[in-house]
8-oxoguanine deaminase (Streptomyces polyrhachis), 459 residues
Amino acid sequence: MSDAPGRTVIENCAIATVDAHGTEYARGHLVLAGDRIESLGAGAAPEGLAGVVRRIDAEGHLATPGLVNTHHHFYQFLTRGLATDHNLFDWLTALYPTWARIDEAMCRAGALGSLAMMARGGCTTAMDHHYIHPRGAGDLSGAIIQAARETGVRFTLARGSMDRGESDGGLPPDFAVESLEGALAATEETVDRHHDASFGAMTQIAVAPCSPFSVSTELLTQSAELARRKGVRMHTHGSETVEEETWCRELFGMGPTDYFESTGWLGADVWMAHCVHMNDADLAAFARTGTGVAHCPSSNARLAAGIARVPDMLAAGIPVGLGVDGTASNEAGELHTELRGAVLVNRLGPHREAALTARQALRLGTYGGAQVLGRAAEIGSLEPGKLADLVLWRLDTLAHASIADPVAALVLGAPAPVTASFVGGRQLVADGRLTTVDEDEIAASTRSEARRLAEIAGE
Ligand SMILES: [Zn+2]
Protein backbone atom coordinates (compact mmCIF):
# COMPACT_ATOMS: atom_id res chain seq x y z
CA MET A 1 0.00 0.00 0.00
CA SER A 2 2.04 2.93 -1.25
CA ASP A 3 -0.57 5.50 -0.19
CA ALA A 4 -0.64 4.32 3.46
CA PRO A 5 -0.37 7.14 6.01
CA GLY A 6 2.89 7.45 7.96
CA ARG A 7 3.24 4.64 10.49
CA THR A 8 4.53 4.72 14.06
CA VAL A 9 5.77 1.40 15.46
CA ILE A 10 5.94 0.89 19.23
CA GLU A 11 7.62 -2.31 20.46
CA ASN A 12 8.88 -4.23 23.51
CA CYS A 13 6.28 -2.92 26.01
CA ALA A 14 3.60 -4.54 28.14
CA ILE A 15 0.14 -3.65 26.81
CA ALA A 16 -3.18 -3.42 28.67
CA THR A 17 -5.72 -2.98 25.87
CA VAL A 18 -8.79 -2.56 28.14
CA ASP A 19 -10.86 -4.19 25.39
CA ALA A 20 -14.03 -6.16 26.19
CA HIS A 21 -11.96 -9.25 27.07
CA GLY A 22 -9.36 -7.36 29.09
CA THR A 23 -6.66 -8.56 26.65
CA GLU A 24 -3.11 -7.92 27.85
CA TYR A 25 0.32 -8.66 26.39
CA ALA A 26 3.38 -9.09 28.62
CA ARG A 27 5.52 -7.98 25.67
CA GLY A 28 3.97 -6.67 22.52
CA HIS A 29 3.77 -4.07 19.78
CA LEU A 30 1.44 -1.40 18.43
CA VAL A 31 1.31 0.06 14.94
CA LEU A 32 -0.27 3.50 14.53
CA ALA A 33 -1.23 4.72 11.07
CA GLY A 34 -2.41 8.32 10.66
CA ASP A 35 -4.80 9.06 13.53
CA ARG A 36 -5.73 5.40 14.12
CA ILE A 37 -4.44 2.23 15.73
CA GLU A 38 -3.75 -0.08 12.80
CA SER A 39 -2.72 -3.24 14.63
CA LEU A 40 -1.36 -4.54 17.91
CA GLY A 41 -0.38 -7.86 19.40
CA ALA A 42 2.19 -10.01 21.16
CA GLY A 43 5.86 -9.95 20.26
CA ALA A 44 7.56 -7.74 17.66
CA ALA A 45 5.72 -5.79 14.96
CA PRO A 46 5.39 -7.44 11.54
CA GLU A 47 8.45 -6.99 9.36
CA GLY A 48 8.40 -5.08 6.11
CA LEU A 49 5.82 -2.42 7.07
CA ALA A 50 5.83 0.40 4.52
CA GLY A 51 5.96 4.09 5.41
CA VAL A 52 7.33 3.76 8.95
CA VAL A 53 8.22 7.31 10.06
CA ARG A 54 8.90 6.57 13.73
CA ARG A 55 10.01 3.56 15.75
CA ILE A 56 9.81 3.59 19.56
CA ASP A 57 11.60 0.99 21.66
CA ALA A 58 9.30 0.98 24.70
CA GLU A 59 11.29 -1.50 26.79
CA GLY A 60 10.29 -1.17 30.49
CA HIS A 61 6.96 0.51 29.69
CA LEU A 62 3.26 -0.27 29.91
CA ALA A 63 1.02 0.95 27.07
CA THR A 64 -2.58 1.77 27.97
CA PRO A 65 -5.38 3.72 26.36
CA GLY A 66 -5.09 7.44 27.14
CA LEU A 67 -6.94 8.42 30.30
CA VAL A 68 -10.34 10.07 29.86
CA ASN A 69 -11.43 12.67 32.38
CA THR A 70 -15.17 13.08 32.90
CA HIS A 71 -15.48 15.91 35.44
CA HIS A 72 -13.40 19.06 36.02
CA HIS A 73 -13.65 22.84 36.46
CA PHE A 74 -10.59 24.40 34.85
CA TYR A 75 -11.03 27.92 36.27
CA GLN A 76 -10.50 26.54 39.78
CA PHE A 77 -6.79 26.13 38.97
CA LEU A 78 -6.52 29.77 40.14
CA THR A 79 -8.13 29.08 43.55
CA ARG A 80 -6.22 26.03 44.74
CA GLY A 81 -5.41 25.69 48.42
CA LEU A 82 -8.29 27.83 49.71
CA ALA A 83 -11.10 26.76 52.07
CA THR A 84 -9.18 23.55 52.73
CA ASP A 85 -11.22 22.35 55.74
CA HIS A 86 -14.81 22.81 54.55
CA ASN A 87 -17.72 20.65 53.44
CA LEU A 88 -19.23 21.29 50.00
CA PHE A 89 -21.81 23.95 50.87
CA ASP A 90 -19.44 25.93 53.15
CA TRP A 91 -16.67 25.60 50.56
CA LEU A 92 -18.96 26.85 47.78
CA THR A 93 -20.19 29.76 49.87
CA ALA A 94 -16.57 30.69 50.71
CA LEU A 95 -15.37 30.56 47.08
CA TYR A 96 -18.31 31.78 44.94
CA PRO A 97 -17.59 35.50 45.55
CA THR A 98 -14.03 35.01 44.23
CA TRP A 99 -15.07 32.78 41.34
CA ALA A 100 -17.66 35.36 40.27
CA ARG A 101 -14.79 37.75 39.37
CA ILE A 102 -13.17 35.58 36.70
CA ASP A 103 -12.57 36.96 33.22
CA GLU A 104 -11.34 35.65 29.88
CA ALA A 105 -7.61 35.91 30.63
CA MET A 106 -8.06 34.08 33.94
CA CYS A 107 -10.13 31.35 32.27
CA ARG A 108 -7.44 30.90 29.64
CA ALA A 109 -4.70 30.57 32.29
CA GLY A 110 -6.78 28.18 34.40
CA ALA A 111 -7.62 26.07 31.35
CA LEU A 112 -4.00 25.87 30.17
CA GLY A 113 -2.84 24.98 33.69
CA SER A 114 -5.48 22.29 34.12
CA LEU A 115 -4.96 20.82 30.65
CA ALA A 116 -1.17 20.79 31.03
CA MET A 117 -1.36 19.01 34.39
CA MET A 118 -3.77 16.45 32.99
CA ALA A 119 -1.87 15.87 29.74
CA ARG A 120 1.53 15.32 31.36
CA GLY A 121 -0.20 12.77 33.61
CA GLY A 122 -1.48 10.65 30.72
CA CYS A 123 -4.88 12.20 30.11
CA THR A 124 -5.68 12.36 26.40
CA THR A 125 -9.36 13.37 26.60
CA ALA A 126 -10.30 16.17 28.97
CA MET A 127 -13.53 17.91 29.86
CA ASP A 128 -14.35 21.20 31.54
CA HIS A 129 -17.67 21.83 33.26
CA HIS A 130 -17.68 25.61 33.13
CA TYR A 131 -20.74 27.15 34.77
CA ILE A 132 -19.64 30.64 35.88
CA HIS A 133 -20.26 33.28 33.23
CA PRO A 134 -20.18 36.71 34.94
CA ARG A 135 -21.71 39.53 32.90
CA GLY A 136 -19.10 41.24 30.70
CA ALA A 137 -16.44 38.59 31.36
CA GLY A 138 -15.87 37.97 27.64
CA ASP A 139 -16.00 34.77 25.57
CA LEU A 140 -15.06 32.28 28.28
CA SER A 141 -16.13 29.20 26.28
CA GLY A 142 -14.07 30.35 23.29
CA ALA A 143 -11.00 30.95 25.49
CA ILE A 144 -11.25 27.49 27.07
CA ILE A 145 -11.71 25.73 23.71
CA GLN A 146 -8.74 27.65 22.27
CA ALA A 147 -6.58 26.48 25.21
CA ALA A 148 -7.59 22.86 24.56
CA ARG A 149 -6.68 23.24 20.86
CA GLU A 150 -3.26 24.62 21.77
CA THR A 151 -2.46 21.73 24.12
CA GLY A 152 -3.75 19.17 21.59
CA VAL A 153 -5.91 17.30 24.12
CA ARG A 154 -9.23 15.88 22.89
CA PHE A 155 -11.89 17.94 24.64
CA THR A 156 -15.51 18.21 25.75
CA LEU A 157 -16.68 21.60 26.99
CA ALA A 158 -19.70 21.13 29.22
CA ARG A 159 -21.24 24.59 28.84
CA GLY A 160 -22.55 25.17 32.35
CA SER A 161 -24.96 27.71 33.72
CA MET A 162 -26.53 28.99 36.95
CA ASP A 163 -29.71 31.07 37.35
CA ARG A 164 -30.66 30.43 41.00
CA GLY A 165 -28.91 33.14 43.02
CA GLU A 166 -29.13 33.78 46.75
CA SER A 167 -32.37 35.77 46.46
CA ASP A 168 -34.01 32.69 44.86
CA GLY A 169 -32.82 30.36 47.63
CA GLY A 170 -29.67 29.23 45.74
CA LEU A 171 -26.07 29.20 46.95
CA PRO A 172 -24.28 31.52 44.46
CA PRO A 173 -24.41 35.30 44.94
CA ASP A 174 -26.93 36.98 42.60
CA PHE A 175 -24.23 38.75 40.58
CA ALA A 176 -22.67 35.41 39.64
CA VAL A 177 -25.71 33.96 37.85
CA GLU A 178 -27.19 34.37 34.35
CA SER A 179 -30.84 34.84 33.42
CA LEU A 180 -32.78 31.76 32.28
CA GLU A 181 -33.09 33.10 28.73
CA GLY A 182 -29.49 34.32 28.62
CA ALA A 183 -28.07 30.98 29.77
CA LEU A 184 -30.11 28.99 27.25
CA ALA A 185 -29.28 31.29 24.32
CA ALA A 186 -25.55 31.32 25.12
CA THR A 187 -25.49 27.53 25.51
CA GLU A 188 -27.23 27.03 22.16
CA GLU A 189 -24.81 29.41 20.50
CA THR A 190 -21.83 27.51 21.94
CA VAL A 191 -23.21 24.21 20.60
CA ASP A 192 -23.82 25.74 17.16
CA ARG A 193 -20.36 27.31 16.98
CA HIS A 194 -18.15 24.58 18.41
CA HIS A 195 -19.75 21.11 18.57
CA ASP A 196 -18.20 18.59 16.17
CA ALA A 197 -20.14 15.31 15.96
CA SER A 198 -17.71 13.60 13.55
CA PHE A 199 -15.55 10.53 14.34
CA GLY A 200 -12.32 11.71 15.92
CA ALA A 201 -13.68 15.16 16.83
CA MET A 202 -11.30 17.25 18.92
CA THR A 203 -14.06 19.50 20.34
CA GLN A 204 -17.50 18.53 21.58
CA ILE A 205 -20.03 20.49 23.60
CA ALA A 206 -22.38 19.21 26.31
CA VAL A 207 -25.25 21.11 27.96
CA ALA A 208 -24.45 21.37 31.66
CA PRO A 209 -26.48 23.44 34.16
CA CYS A 210 -24.47 23.42 37.40
CA SER A 211 -26.53 21.66 40.10
CA PRO A 212 -30.03 21.60 41.63
CA PHE A 213 -28.99 24.16 44.26
CA SER A 214 -27.75 26.76 41.74
CA VAL A 215 -30.19 26.22 38.85
CA SER A 216 -33.96 26.75 38.52
CA THR A 217 -36.29 23.88 37.63
CA GLU A 218 -37.08 25.69 34.37
CA LEU A 219 -33.41 25.92 33.40
CA LEU A 220 -32.93 22.20 34.06
CA THR A 221 -36.03 21.26 32.05
CA GLN A 222 -35.32 23.59 29.14
CA SER A 223 -31.62 22.63 29.06
CA ALA A 224 -32.64 18.98 28.62
CA GLU A 225 -34.96 19.97 25.77
CA LEU A 226 -32.19 22.04 24.16
CA ALA A 227 -29.62 19.23 24.40
CA ARG A 228 -31.97 16.67 22.87
CA ARG A 229 -33.03 19.04 20.10
CA LYS A 230 -29.33 19.55 19.26
CA GLY A 231 -28.30 15.91 19.77
CA VAL A 232 -25.58 16.68 22.34
CA ARG A 233 -24.91 15.15 25.76
CA MET A 234 -26.02 16.48 29.15
CA HIS A 235 -23.98 16.83 32.33
CA THR A 236 -24.51 18.15 35.86
CA HIS A 237 -23.64 17.53 39.53
CA GLY A 238 -25.89 15.12 41.40
CA SER A 239 -26.32 13.58 44.85
CA GLU A 240 -22.97 14.89 46.06
CA THR A 241 -23.62 15.44 49.78
CA VAL A 242 -26.15 14.80 52.56
CA GLU A 243 -26.77 18.55 52.68
CA GLU A 244 -27.87 18.46 49.02
CA GLU A 245 -30.23 15.56 49.73
CA THR A 246 -31.81 17.49 52.64
CA TRP A 247 -32.02 20.68 50.56
CA CYS A 248 -33.80 18.85 47.70
CA ARG A 249 -36.27 17.15 50.04
CA GLU A 250 -37.13 20.46 51.73
CA LEU A 251 -37.54 22.39 48.48
CA PHE A 252 -38.97 19.80 46.09
CA GLY A 253 -40.33 17.09 48.41
CA MET A 254 -38.09 14.45 46.81
CA GLY A 255 -34.46 13.34 46.64
CA PRO A 256 -32.07 14.47 43.86
CA THR A 257 -32.51 11.45 41.57
CA ASP A 258 -36.32 11.70 41.56
CA TYR A 259 -35.97 15.44 40.99
CA PHE A 260 -33.65 14.82 38.03
CA GLU A 261 -36.06 12.29 36.57
CA SER A 262 -38.94 14.80 36.89
CA THR A 263 -36.93 17.38 34.91
CA GLY A 264 -35.86 15.04 32.08
CA TRP A 265 -32.39 14.51 33.48
CA LEU A 266 -32.03 10.74 33.41
CA GLY A 267 -31.06 9.02 30.15
CA ALA A 268 -28.31 7.37 28.13
CA ASP A 269 -27.26 10.86 26.96
CA VAL A 270 -26.69 12.09 30.55
CA TRP A 271 -23.71 11.73 32.88
CA MET A 272 -23.63 13.10 36.38
CA ALA A 273 -20.74 13.96 38.69
CA HIS A 274 -20.39 12.33 42.14
CA CYS A 275 -23.65 10.38 42.80
CA VAL A 276 -22.47 9.69 46.35
CA HIS A 277 -25.79 9.59 48.18
CA MET A 278 -27.82 7.11 46.16
CA ASN A 279 -30.27 4.53 47.54
CA ASP A 280 -31.12 1.26 45.76
CA ALA A 281 -34.05 2.88 43.91
CA ASP A 282 -31.76 5.69 42.67
CA LEU A 283 -29.24 3.16 41.36
CA ALA A 284 -32.05 1.20 39.67
CA ALA A 285 -33.24 4.41 37.96
CA PHE A 286 -29.72 5.12 36.65
CA ALA A 287 -29.37 1.52 35.42
CA ARG A 288 -32.81 1.52 33.77
CA THR A 289 -32.13 4.77 31.91
CA GLY A 290 -28.43 4.23 31.14
CA THR A 291 -27.43 7.41 33.01
CA GLY A 292 -23.67 7.60 33.53
CA VAL A 293 -21.57 8.63 36.53
CA ALA A 294 -18.34 10.61 36.91
CA HIS A 295 -16.72 9.19 40.05
CA CYS A 296 -14.41 11.72 41.77
CA PRO A 297 -12.79 9.93 44.74
CA SER A 298 -10.25 12.60 45.77
CA SER A 299 -12.73 15.47 45.65
CA ASN A 300 -15.36 13.46 47.54
CA ALA A 301 -12.79 12.75 50.26
CA ARG A 302 -11.42 16.33 50.33
CA LEU A 303 -14.96 17.75 50.81
CA ALA A 304 -16.01 14.95 53.19
CA ALA A 305 -18.88 14.13 50.81
CA GLY A 306 -18.76 10.36 51.33
CA ILE A 307 -18.06 7.24 49.29
CA ALA A 308 -19.96 6.65 46.05
CA ARG A 309 -21.35 3.12 45.63
CA VAL A 310 -19.16 2.32 42.63
CA PRO A 311 -19.17 -1.49 43.08
CA ASP A 312 -22.98 -1.45 43.19
CA MET A 313 -23.11 0.85 40.15
CA LEU A 314 -20.89 -1.50 38.14
CA ALA A 315 -22.91 -4.54 39.25
CA ALA A 316 -26.06 -2.76 38.06
CA GLY A 317 -24.48 -2.02 34.66
CA ILE A 318 -24.27 1.75 35.15
CA PRO A 319 -21.53 3.39 32.99
CA VAL A 320 -18.90 4.89 35.33
CA GLY A 321 -15.92 7.09 34.46
CA LEU A 322 -13.40 8.91 36.66
CA GLY A 323 -13.10 12.63 37.30
CA VAL A 324 -10.53 14.80 39.01
CA ASP A 325 -13.19 17.45 39.74
CA GLY A 326 -12.06 21.08 39.99
CA THR A 327 -8.64 21.75 41.48
CA ALA A 328 -10.15 23.83 44.28
CA SER A 329 -11.31 20.50 45.75
CA ASN A 330 -8.48 18.33 44.37
CA GLU A 331 -5.32 20.41 44.26
CA ALA A 332 -3.40 17.66 42.43
CA GLY A 333 -5.53 17.86 39.29
CA GLU A 334 -4.12 14.58 37.92
CA LEU A 335 -6.21 11.71 36.66
CA HIS A 336 -3.70 8.87 37.04
CA THR A 337 -3.70 9.38 40.81
CA GLU A 338 -7.50 8.97 40.76
CA LEU A 339 -7.03 5.36 39.61
CA ARG A 340 -5.37 4.65 42.94
CA GLY A 341 -7.87 6.83 44.78
CA ALA A 342 -10.78 4.90 43.30
CA VAL A 343 -9.41 1.58 44.54
CA LEU A 344 -8.51 2.84 48.00
CA VAL A 345 -11.65 4.89 48.69
CA ASN A 346 -14.02 2.17 47.52
CA ARG A 347 -12.27 -0.44 49.68
CA LEU A 348 -13.11 1.70 52.71
CA GLY A 349 -16.80 1.08 51.89
CA PRO A 350 -18.94 -1.98 52.64
CA HIS A 351 -17.49 -4.20 49.87
CA ARG A 352 -14.04 -3.96 51.45
CA GLU A 353 -11.31 -5.77 49.48
CA ALA A 354 -13.79 -6.92 46.83
CA ALA A 355 -14.88 -3.36 46.01
CA LEU A 356 -12.68 -2.60 43.01
CA THR A 357 -9.61 -4.21 41.42
CA ALA A 358 -6.67 -2.35 39.91
CA ARG A 359 -7.84 -3.45 36.45
CA GLN A 360 -11.36 -2.22 37.09
CA ALA A 361 -9.92 1.15 38.14
CA LEU A 362 -7.91 1.36 34.90
CA ARG A 363 -11.09 0.51 33.01
CA LEU A 364 -13.02 3.30 34.77
CA GLY A 365 -10.27 5.78 33.84
CA THR A 366 -10.25 4.78 30.16
CA TYR A 367 -13.15 2.86 28.63
CA GLY A 368 -15.61 3.93 31.35
CA GLY A 369 -14.79 7.57 30.69
CA ALA A 370 -15.21 7.08 26.95
CA GLN A 371 -18.62 5.50 27.60
CA VAL A 372 -19.96 8.36 29.72
CA LEU A 373 -18.71 10.92 27.17
CA GLY A 374 -20.48 8.94 24.42
CA ARG A 375 -17.22 8.13 22.63
CA ALA A 376 -16.65 4.43 23.33
CA ALA A 377 -16.58 3.62 19.61
CA GLU A 378 -13.62 5.99 19.12
CA ILE A 379 -11.46 5.92 22.26
CA GLY A 380 -11.07 4.20 25.66
CA SER A 381 -9.42 0.94 24.54
CA LEU A 382 -6.53 -0.11 22.30
CA GLU A 383 -8.12 -1.83 19.31
CA PRO A 384 -7.52 -1.70 15.55
CA GLY A 385 -9.59 1.06 13.93
CA LYS A 386 -9.89 3.14 17.10
CA LEU A 387 -8.19 6.52 17.46
CA ALA A 388 -4.51 6.40 18.40
CA ASP A 389 -4.99 7.92 21.87
CA LEU A 390 -2.53 6.09 24.14
CA VAL A 391 0.11 6.45 26.82
CA LEU A 392 3.49 4.83 27.49
CA TRP A 393 4.06 4.68 31.26
CA ARG A 394 7.65 4.17 32.41
CA LEU A 395 7.77 1.36 34.98
CA ASP A 396 11.45 0.36 35.09
CA THR A 397 12.82 2.96 37.51
CA LEU A 398 13.16 2.87 41.30
CA ALA A 399 9.49 3.70 41.89
CA HIS A 400 8.09 0.68 40.00
CA ALA A 401 10.83 -1.73 38.84
CA SER A 402 10.18 -4.34 41.54
CA ILE A 403 6.36 -4.30 41.36
CA ALA A 404 5.34 -7.69 39.96
CA ASP A 405 2.41 -6.67 37.78
CA PRO A 406 2.53 -3.64 35.44
CA VAL A 407 -1.15 -2.76 35.93
CA ALA A 408 -0.75 -2.93 39.72
CA ALA A 409 2.39 -0.79 39.34
CA LEU A 410 0.44 1.85 37.39
CA VAL A 411 -2.64 1.88 39.62
CA LEU A 412 -1.27 1.20 43.10
CA GLY A 413 2.29 2.49 42.77
CA ALA A 414 3.64 6.03 42.84
CA PRO A 415 2.44 8.23 39.96
CA ALA A 416 4.23 6.73 36.95
CA PRO A 417 6.22 8.98 34.61
CA VAL A 418 4.69 9.38 31.14
CA THR A 419 7.36 8.81 28.50
CA ALA A 420 5.00 9.43 25.61
CA SER A 421 1.35 10.12 25.01
CA PHE A 422 -0.48 10.35 21.70
CA VAL A 423 -3.79 11.92 20.71
CA GLY A 424 -4.96 10.85 17.27
CA GLY A 425 -1.42 9.72 16.56
CA ARG A 426 0.08 13.11 17.43
CA GLN A 427 2.65 13.00 20.24
CA LEU A 428 1.69 15.37 23.10
CA VAL A 429 4.20 14.27 25.73
CA ALA A 430 7.83 13.29 25.22
CA ASP A 431 9.96 12.24 28.21
CA GLY A 432 7.43 13.68 30.64
CA ARG A 433 7.29 17.13 29.01
CA LEU A 434 4.55 18.59 26.86
CA THR A 435 5.56 19.05 23.23
CA THR A 436 2.76 21.46 22.31
CA VAL A 437 2.93 24.21 24.94
CA ASP A 438 5.51 25.64 27.36
CA GLU A 439 4.87 24.35 30.90
CA ASP A 440 7.00 27.03 32.55
CA GLU A 441 5.17 29.84 30.75
CA ILE A 442 1.85 28.30 31.78
CA ALA A 443 2.99 27.99 35.40
CA ALA A 444 3.96 31.69 35.42
CA SER A 445 0.63 32.76 33.89
CA THR A 446 -1.40 30.71 36.39
CA ARG A 447 0.52 32.32 39.23
CA SER A 448 0.01 35.88 37.98
CA GLU A 449 -3.66 35.35 37.06
CA ALA A 450 -4.34 33.73 40.45
CA ARG A 451 -2.81 36.77 42.12
CA ARG A 452 -4.88 39.14 39.97
CA LEU A 453 -8.09 37.25 40.80
CA ALA A 454 -7.31 37.35 44.53
CA GLU A 455 -6.70 41.11 44.31
CA ILE A 456 -9.94 41.83 42.40
CA ALA A 457 -11.94 39.58 44.73
CA GLY A 458 -10.46 41.34 47.76
CA GLU A 459 -11.54 44.82 46.62
ZN1 LIG B 1 -17.64 19.51 40.20
About this structure: The chain is about 35% helix and 20% strand. Residues 71, 73, 237, 273, 325-326 surround zinc ion (CB under 6 Å). The first helix runs from residue 88 to 99.
